[in-house]
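Box 3.1 A note on notation
Throughout this textbook, protein chains are presented in two layers. The first layer is the amino acid sequence; the second is a token string describing backbone geometry. Keep the layers aligned when reading.
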Amino acid sequence: MDLIQAIVLGIIQGLTEWLPISSTAHLRIIPALLGWQDPGSAFTAVIQLGTLAACLIYFREDLGRAFSGWFKSLKGGEAAKTQDAKMGWAIFIGTIPIIIFGLLFKNNITGNLRGLNIVAYALIFVGLLMLVAEKIGSKKRTVEQITPRDGLIIGLWQAVALIPGSSRSGSTITGGMFAGFDRASAARFSFLLSVPSVLAAGVKELISERHELSSLNMSSVIVCTLVSFVVGYASIAFLVKFLQKNSTTGFVVYRICLGVLLLFLLNSGQLKPDTGLAPATTEASQSK
């Protein structure tokens, strides 16, 4: 990976990690169209630490209150009834599903599920679910009304994001709207909920794939991560403000159009499901 590729991938990661259009999908599609090799799930998890840092800084006060409330709630009593405590428990409980499913289906997530055909269907399917949520969700609840039960429900939606193309923010924002939250509140909780799982995935990949990562151009990895941080911070600020006055329909249209275009390229033979995948990933996919 050269410096130009690192900058391009960093911009893609920063723009698409928090917008409900799937960073994993774009990190698979764009390199495939440009003839680049798939950066891989390990690389993706590491550069997500850049966008995670953006989220930590942007929501530092919210996260601080949630953690403090959760910690104090362990003592019981009135401390467990505060809204900060409920937010802390919602994040804690909401993180459990993605950990469980991530461990159960790790080989699929890093293997055959990275095929471009899966990405295309996931883009379209979650886009349609988002559209339904827009139509039937009451959008009357605010983030201040979050409960641990909401955390579990939206956490299950977050687990859907393990399928490349689904989008972590797309699935959780959709789940939040189905639960009756307004768009901005659903997005805000989506960002807060992502912190533990993204951090855990990044650290895990750093440890388990350290030999693979050592073969990469580390200066490019660092540049990519820094670019994703800067662009990611800007995309968070944009989405939070955008959803206060606008719907998610534009993102729905984009997802569906991109999915349909990808299916056309696949069906016409211009791309193959395993285009750009590393040889090890392709072999693992074919052996299943």
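Residues 280-288 have pLDDT under 50 and may be disordered. DSSP finds 14 helices and no strands in the chain.
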